[in-house]
Amino acid sequence: MSYVDEVLERVIAKNPAEPEFHQAAKEVLNSLRPVIEANEELYRKEALLERLTEPDRQFKFRVPWVDDKGQVQVNTGYRVQFNNSIGPYKGGLRLHPSVNLGIIKFLGFEQIFKNSLTGLPIGGGKGGSDFDPKGKSDREVMAFCQSFMTELCKYIGADTDVPAGDIGTGAREIGYMFGQFKKIRGTYEGVLTGKGLSYGGSLARTEATGYGLLYLTEEMLKCNGHDLKGKTVCVSGSGNVAIYATQKAHQLGAKVVTVSDSTGWVYDPEGIDVALLKEVKEVKRARLTEYAAARPSAEYHEGRGVWTVKCDVALPCATQNELLLDDAKALVANGCIAVAEGANMPTTLEATEYLQQNKVLFAPGKAANAGGVATSALEMSQNSERLSWTFEEVDSKLQGIMVNIFHNLDDAAKRYGKEGDYVAGANIAGFEKVAEAMIAQGVC
Ligand SMILES: NC(=O)C1=CN([C@@H]2O[C@H](COP(=O)(O)OP(=O)(O)OC[C@H]3O[C@@H](n4cnc5c(N)ncnc54)[C@H](OP(=O)(O)O)[C@@H]3O)[C@@H](O)[C@H]2O)C=CC1
Ligand SMILES: O=C(O)CCC(=O)C(=O)O
């Protein structure tokens, strides 16, 4: 049996009932086969893949808090510190009722390679809780965040592990968590990113994941003889990534005609009105029905359906496994030329394979959405030097990083005879640096 197959069997046996983690491990290790085969003796002796697929450590803890009726509620908190061979653990905190250890492990595993691709010194980690901020008062969210950080603060620090936002964790949650860290630990340090601008946050971090997605997509299209200008784009999701992806797509001359949330989706043939979307989602924290009610050109539909709309470019920006094989077939039938993942692992393995077989340009999330964590690393740099850079400075560094990521994965794919396979390219380019650092640092 090949080394990759042995390790995949081991991952499944050692981590039962964690299908998302199995999926991420399969996607990465299968596409690394040519690199592993070329160095099999060394990697086997070093047990490199066994070490890479086993987190350095993982924490699971009780998060008790009191709701507005005086009732005690109990959630589960997680932090998985996956790999710190190239820098302190870095990765977001997801607050969503679907969160479990397997989901946090898949996200932490992906984060190792994504963070390596940024070219910045950050290792891979992820955390979160099954707490649902939706429908909670600000006081309830604060009570949860304070309790969550009371335990998490034992394991994190500016040079150890630096969490940030993800689904359900935005500026409000990061603020409450930062306050509690400071109160308990008594230090004022860049322990979280995505902070408010009045207490150490970076300009352009809010926009970074969505903007970065468009910078990489534009470069991928350009290098394949297409222009983003004039293209029709379908976006899924309507949170942080989706909003700023839509804004940047419009700035670059494309037209976004859809957004969605977990209950329904909007088709707006005149182009999504970003100011209205921000008002509905960021200010009112309301549902997309409010967007449709305020916008005469928009149609609202219950359930799923974004990928049935004819488009040139598809940007899944909601959550994992939201673009299925049938969706991929609909996109291909409608002439879609590119898919770039704003979310983490939004496309299933079968759908990815179908899109690639049908010559759709496909940019995997670990490359395409790396602008968020890259800008978090820029926030860490600014915190270390006690300086704040301008929006233009951060945005131009972000743009350079995304263009560079695209060329690194394009080159890596070509080096291994897989030209145009950006999934393989991203995994290979991300892996090479981590593998070299792990071997240089000995058995640890
Ligand atoms: N924020 C960041 O900097 C980065 C985020 N990402 C990834 O991007 C994706 C979106 O994150 P972000 O925009 O920050 O999160 P937000 O919480 O701001 O928005 C998430 C969006 O996705 C929808 N959504 C969430 N879960 C589900 C679900 N199970 N089914 C259907 N729709 C769902 C939400 O709808 P509803 O409101 O109804 O729940 C909402 O529209 C995630 O995969 C995240 O890991 C990747 C890199 C960086
Ligand atoms: O900014 C960060 O540290 C994390 C962003 C994130 O969670 C991600 O890249 O998926």
From TrEMBL:
Its EC number is 1.4.1.4. Keywords: Oxidoreductase. It is an enzyme of class 1 (oxidoreductase). This is NADP-specific glutamate dehydrogenase. The lineage of its organism: Bacteria, Bacillati, Bacillota, Clostridia, Lachnospirales.
